[in-house]
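ok new one. same drill as before - structure tokens go in, u give me an amino acid for every spot. 272 of them this time. try not to just spam alanines like last time pls lmao
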């Protein structure tokens, strides 16, 4: 094993884990890092399966009780029409409906979006868009709604669709949509991350065709991918703990400042 290469993949996994949850765009960071480190030049699809599955697994474990409660309540409400599970039933409906815009755009514009990941200029612009959104977070105040309703579902769902673009933080822009519609910070964060699960699961299922690439991939490269996968899982989970225990929307400006810097750097690199 080449330890320099191993460290590069551990770094990619580390960044994927943090950037998937923090409002700084994992897609943009992976595109930039893979360019800087000169790795995955011909195996981007397979690598993405490994690290995205790791983040999906971490999210599923973090929200395990909530997910089970929603699924259980949804089907009990349908088959037994038990009013005690009304909230779980509607949350299931909300998650499905809010996921439709991103799913449609991802499916219909898959090739176009995939091509943008290799365009550092577009990635850099995406970083700056996310920075602008985060700078505006403290101005979105006086949120009163503590429970999700249709206005939050529709707004968050439409905003999440924009988050499929590289450099644009899916979590950041989805939370923005939920907050703009009047949802308080904590339920907005929870709803935004629950929305990630069906989108990530759908993307993973659609990408399973690329699993066949494993047959033609060197064993050493699969080991590196596995290292990145473990790092992505660990740091996705740790980032979730931070977001739900330590993070407040007033801190978003620090991420915004960082994104302005890295966005500017990315745009400069695109012209070199």
């Amino acid at each position: 094993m080449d330890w320099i290469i191993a460290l590069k993949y551990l770094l990619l996994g580390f960044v994927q884990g943090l950037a998937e949850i923090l409002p700084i765009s994992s897609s943009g960071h992976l595109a930039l890092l893979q360019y800087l480190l000169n790795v995955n030049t011909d195996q981007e699809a397979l690598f993405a399966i490994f690290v995205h599955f790791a983040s999906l697994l971490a999210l599923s474990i973090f929200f395990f009780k909530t997910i089970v409660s929603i699924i259980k309540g949804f089907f009990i409400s349908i088959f037994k029409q038990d009013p005690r599970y009304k909230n779980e039933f509607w949350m299931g409906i909300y998650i499905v409906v809010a996921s439709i815009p991103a799913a449609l755009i991802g499916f219909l514009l898959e090739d176009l979006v995939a091509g943008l990941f290799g365009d550092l200029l577009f990635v850099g612009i995406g970083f700056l868009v996310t920075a602008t959104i985060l700078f505006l977070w403290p101005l979105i105040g006086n949120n009163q709604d503590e429970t999700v309703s249709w206005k939050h579902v529709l707004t968050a769902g439409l905003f999440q669709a924009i988050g499929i673009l590289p450099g644009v933080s899916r979590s950041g822009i989805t939370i923005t949509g939920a907050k703009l519609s009047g949802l308080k910070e904590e339920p907005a964060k929870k709803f935004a991350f629950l929305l990630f699960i069906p989108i990530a699961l759908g993307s993973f299922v659609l990408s399973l065709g690329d699993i066949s690439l494993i047959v033609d991939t060197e064993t050493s490269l699969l080991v590196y991918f596995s290292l990145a996968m473990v790092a992505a899982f660990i740091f996705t989970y740790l980032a979730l703990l931070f977001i739900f225990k330590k993070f407040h929307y007033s801190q978003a400006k620090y991420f915004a400042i960082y994104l302005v810097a890295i966005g500017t750097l990315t745009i400069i690199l695109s012209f070199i």
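The radius of gyration is 19 Å. and btw The chain has one domain: 3-270.
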